[in-house]
Amino acid sequence: LDSIFQKCPDEGVEEIVMGMAHRGRLNVLANVMGKSHEFIFREFSENFVPDGAHGSGDVKYHLGYESARTTSSGQQVVIHLSPNPSHLEAVNGVVEGKARARQRLRGDVERRRVLPILIHGDAAMAGQGVVAEVFNFSKLPGYRTGGTVHVVVNNQIGFTTDPTDARSSLYCTDVAKIIEAPIFHVNGNDPLAVAMVAELALAYRQKFQEDVVIDINCYRKHGHNEADDPAFTQPILYKRIKQMSPISSILADQLVKDGDLDQKESDEIHKQLRRQLDATLEKVKTIKKSSTFEGSVAIRQIPYDFAPVETAVAKKDLDKVAGALTHFPDGFNLNPKIKRQIETKAKNFKSGRGIDWAMAEQLAFGSLLLEGTAVRLSGQDSERGTFSHRHAAWYDSKDRTRYVPLLEMEDRKGKFCVYNSLLSEAAVLAFDYGYSLDYPSMLSIWEAQFGDFVNGAQVIIDQFIMSGEDKWGAVSDLVLLLPHGFEGQGPEHSSARLERFLQGCAEDNVTVANISTPAQYFHALRRQKIKEYAKPLIVMAPKSLLRHKLCVSELKEFTHGKFEEFIPDPTPPKSPHTLVLCSGKVYYDLLEAREAIRSPKASIMRVEQFYPFHADKFRDLLKPYAKVKRLVWCQEEPQNMGAWSFLSPIIEEVIGRRPEFVGRKATASPATGSLTLHKREQAELIADALGEANLQSK
Questions:
Q1: Regions of the chain where pLDDT drops below 70
Q2: pLDDT value of residue 42
Q3: In this predicted structure, what is the pLDDT of residue 53?
Q4: Which residues of 424-554 form beta strands (DSSP E)?
Q5: Where does residue 459 rank: exposed (0-12), middle (13-18), buried (19+ CB within 10 A)?
Q6: Which residues pair with 665 in a beta bridge?
Q7: Full-prediction pTM beyond 0.90?
Q8: According to DSSP H, which parts of 376-422 are helical?
Q9: In angstroms, rounded to a whole number, what is the distance separating the alpha carbons of residues 696 and 683?
Q10: Which is nearest to 88 in space by CA: 159, 170, 36?
Q11: In what order do the strands lie in the sheet with 114-121?
Q12: Whole-angstrom Cα distance, residue 515 to residue 597?
């Protein structure tokens, strides 16, 4: 690593973004990043209390660090070490996203001035699927970083099993062959050879803008940790290892033999370092209380609050956006189906009515671009949208010329980027999270094809998005769009697992919403960049509502108003018998069913934001319903899923009354695979919520 660092100025590299797991991290922090020995010792002191991370913090060897170091030639290189969890290789995508963001900040269009380095263990390199996903970033337009230098510490430290039980390939680095990356296998007992290979790998990356792998064949002196005895499972191997001289001794003997230094100088180097470490440790022992967070990447931000955020946009600005979205150049052969869509959107915008979800989204994007905020949208089929609703990029039907309407908008100040991603959730979500960390002025959005697919990125959600601020002071306002709603499409195309996100909510760490109108979505997106604090936004996005005749907004809702955490009944019955609380798509099912009732007795209120929950506002909105006989929480999800378990105790605490649950019975699977059964279940829960048993037959 030091060889790469020293060579960076010669190769035009100004910045390194590095990711690694916890093995050897203190060594890297001290000897590559330049973190002082004194501070490292202080972190291990029983009197140390970190000051800088917001919440409970994390173990010392997970924290991020940044430094600007001067090479032996006198030139400065900035080094970033990303915070990481113990989940091996999960940080890889985050580092790539951070590197891409740093390249953008430096105007590094050739991607040569910012270098990503990933440090792997042999077991993790071969065993963790996210490694292959990140290699697949290598040449993709929306995710490439100009090549990554991969360093594999091949010493069986991942666990105590033998390599024959850990991989089917000859080399742990064979996964890199999927992109035909060059792989250098080098003897760890020959440090000068390792240094030479490191310089060669850097030169290759800079010349060809491609990934390159260094596989250092070496060994671990101890087991999986210092107290572990690997001889239990590898007795023969560890007899040999115990007989081996330390690498430092091998190198010193070689340098003495070659005449580069004499034995006395070699011994003095060891003694001097030992004296320095001992003196530093003694100094730290005298410090009674320590609370600095030197060099940490932690950010302290203002607390979350419910103060209204001005997100409305002047009509003249929306006119500019709508004009760009509904115009295509002369001679451009636009697909007839898309042409009909944009003609309808233009008509609805002009009338000021019937603005749908996709149009509201692009109005939000466009208005932010006019204000100078860049927007990045990434995901599977994100250009057209999974449900063919967005069409953020158009392709000429004859020659496939690409046209992005928002990039042609008059007076645009911000850059708009939309990318169809590889078929990955974990690596891509990690990438976009990393991007949001280091380019905070941009609205970064990751979209799942279906909300259920976010299951494949659960590690990134748990380890980074939900807890990153609490553990490391890592601040992100990444938006997750997760298509969610029960429409009879089966267990894997219904639920974005709202309950999992709500279970992880604490300390105002994220915002979780199930939005029911296009205007609300518009204000929520704009609020992400206008508010002063940064929190990830989890959106239970719609599917059928994208084209639902009632799920539309009027233009005045965009030029006035703001995001509302709750939406009261716009047409309540005079003397309601029941108050139905609900969220998202089921509202429209309830509304249509209520319209079929001659004298409805149920009022319907929507919860648009589950967390943070605006308790005071909720209490005020429910005051007129203090005497209703039934208070119902209605959801499509089974009772053991959705918002019920999270919301019911909150509602009871706020108003002193526990709502009645109406929804599907608890099940192991999120949804039925039978459309007939789905329709029957839906009809029953709607009728039950409204208190109209005769509706079930309809």
A1: 49-56, 289-295, 693-698
A2: 84
A3: 46
A4: 443-447, 479-483, 511-513, 537-541
A5: middle
A6: none
A7: yes
A8: none
A9: 5
A10: 159
A11: 65-70, 76-81, 15-19, 114-121, 149-154, 212-217, 183-187
A12: 26
